[in-house]
Write a structure and sequence with these properties.
mainly alpha, two-stranded antiparallel sheet, 10 helices, membrane, DUF4386 domain-containing protein, transmembrane
Length: about 250
């Protein structure tokens, strides 16, 4: 009797550009992390007017470089979200299903978060430009507070992006299950730190925010590795049936 050998289901065709675009999550992590190395943060909360103006006179160039690198990282997040959604849709269709609403939610949360973060960074650039030449701190401080508030609030949609991306990967069975659920957990923690704006508390802001950002960076990198390697856990029944072949004993 000839045994039946089942070959793995053929994964949906992914071009080289799209495959390597999956590394955008890792690129975003590196760029955003590096952006803070160009200049220290301004003495925003509780700092004197003189200290605030002196900061931007001293670190004007570094602040502008950091903003530029941050913007590049934000764009990489958008590419990352698009690749996650696209790969999940491909995997679902390859399994004979139809993508649900999760890939769209993933993109929506990423666009919302990036829009807020870009606006916050634009506020930082405007603060540096005005503060570099100003003699009165009223306008630079107002711009700085506006940018900080946007940045704090942006962690809510940014965390929800990780939640949606994790659920998207889980539903399409792209990558390991634990990786998908880890994204959900990290995203919920990240979004919860946005409550700092309402309730206050340095512990929630500093510790919770630090854990959320670090966890997000590491998760983006891990998902990027899975996307570039083409790791998938879904096996399409129809494709398996077609791929099976009988091998003579």
């Amino acid at each position: 009797m000839s045994p039946t050998v089942y070959l793995p289901a053929t994964p949906p065709t992914v071009g080289r550009v799209e495959r390597w675009a999956g590394a955008s999550g890792a690129l975003a992590s590196v760029l955003i992390f590096m952006s803070g190395a160009f200049a220290p943060g301004p003495p925003s909360h509780g700092g004197t007017d003189a200290a605030l103006l002196a900061h931007f006179r001293t670190y004007y160039d570094g602040t502008m470089r950091g903003v530029f690198v941050w913007m590049l990282g934000a764009m990489a997040v958008l590419v990352f979200a698009a690749v996650v959604a696209r790969r999940a849709e491909r995997a679902t269709r390859a399994a004979g299903g139809e993508p649900g609403v999760l890939p769209t939610v993933t993109l929506l949360m990423a666009v919302t978060a990036v829009g807020m973060l870009v606006a916050a960074q634009a506020g930082a650039a405007a603060t540096a430009a005005v503060g570099h030449h100003a003699t009165d701190a009223a306008i630079p401080r107002a711009l700085d507070e506006f940018g900080h508030m946007l940045a704090h609030l942006s962690v809510i949609p940014l965390g929800l992006f990780s939640v949606a991306a994790g659920l998207t990967l889980r539903e399409a069975q792209v990558g390991a299950r634990w990786l998908a659920w880890l994204g959900v957990a990290i995203g919920l923690e990240m979004a919860a730190t946005g409550a700092w704006v309402v309730f206050g508390g340095d512990l929630l802001h500093n510790v919770g925010g630090g854990i959320g950002w670090l966890g997000s960076f590491l998760w983006w990198i891990a998902v990027s590795v899975a996307l570039v390697r083409g790791v998938a856990s879904r096996r399409a029944p129809a494709a398996d049936a077609v791929a099976s072949q009988t091998v003579a004993a």
